[in-house]
Write a structure and sequence with these properties.
- The chain has about 240 residues and is an alpha/beta fold.
- The strands form two sheets. Strands 1, 2, 3, 4, 5, 6, 7, 9, 10, 14 and 17 form an eleven-stranded mixed sheet that branches. Strands 13-12-11-8-15-16 form a six-stranded antiparallel sheet, with no helix packed on it.
- β1, α1 and β2 form a beta-alpha-beta unit.
- It is elongated and about 60 Å long.
- It has two domains: about 100 residues, 3-Layer(aba) Sandwich (Rossmann fold); about 120 residues, Sandwich (Tumour Suppressor Smad4), CATH 2.60.200.30.
- The protein is built from four helices and 17 strands.
């Protein structure tokens, strides 16, 4: 008997009725299915099922990252880059899941203090003002940027904000991170790809007031003079099918 936690995007009304069908289906197969309204212990959950877009996957993976639960993601969004399946083949995919006929993609996460991010960590100043940032890799000085900010991205996030800012797309299997400036004033800057066991130190070379650290475009923190970012030992585990 397996334990499933079903999480949905309440703003997408189609997910409410659909989630009930999934819960009934799982229970008919003699498995347990919980929602956030039920009492459950996250330690005992085998799979998290998300009904929404990539944003819901990002928030769930951050909320439950320390448990490294396997995520079965049903796309109710636009692109569904991270999704396990589309909503029109959910029950076929669920059967494969119950038959243990799937693979797990382990996605690199970034770590800043006690926080993690799946796509990227962005450092930027509000009101589109320039900020001076010096970048060190393993304590070796790399470059000083004067830009709207910096994006530190995983291979997963390389197709998101990083790509929009002119960064390169990284193969999802690469053990690498990418640092991309946002609208660099010097015009001669370029994305910088590094090994994912590197420690990135960023110093803010002017006032830290109004400088923000943004995780996956969802969680905003106040910046400090010295920012340390590295790959987390925790992985996001996404269910995929052949």
């Amino acid at each position: 008997m397996l334990n499933f936690l079903v999480i949905l995007n309440q703003k997408k009304h189609k997910t409410i009725n659909f989630s009930q069908k999934i819960i009934e289906y799982l229970r008919s197969k003699k498995h347990n299915a919980f929602t956030l309204k039920n009492k459950y212990h996250i330690e005992n959950i085998d799979f998290i099922i998300t009904l929404g877009g990539d944003g819901l996957i990002l928030s769930c993976s951050r909320k439950y990252d320390c448990y490294e639960k396997k995520i079965f993601a049903i796309n109710f969004g636009q692109i569904g880059y991270l999704s396990s399946c589309q909503k029109n083949n959910v029950f076929i995919s669920l059967d494969k899941l119950l038959e243990n006929n799937f693979i797990i993609l382990e996605k690199t996460r970034l770590k800043y203090k006690d926080y993690t991010a799946l796509n990227e960590i962005t450092i930027s100043k509000s009101q589109a003002k320039l900020v001076d940032l010096s970048v060190f890799i393993n304590n070796n000085f790399i470059k000083k940027y004067r830009a709207d900010g910096l994006i530190i991205s995983t291979p997963t996030g390389s197709t998101a904000y990083n790509l929009s800012a002119g960064g390169s797309v990284l193969d999802g299997n690469l053990k690498a991170l990418i640092i991309t400036p946002i609208c660099d004033y010097n015009k001669n800057s370029y994305p910088y790809v590094i090994k994912d066991d590197s420690i990135i130190k960023i110093t803010i070379d002017d006032s830290v007031s109004k400088v923000k650290i943004i995780l996956d475009g969802q969680l905003t923190l106040e910046a400090e003079k010295i920012i340390l970012i590295k790959a987390s030992q925790l992985k996001t585990k996404i269910i995929k099918f052949n």
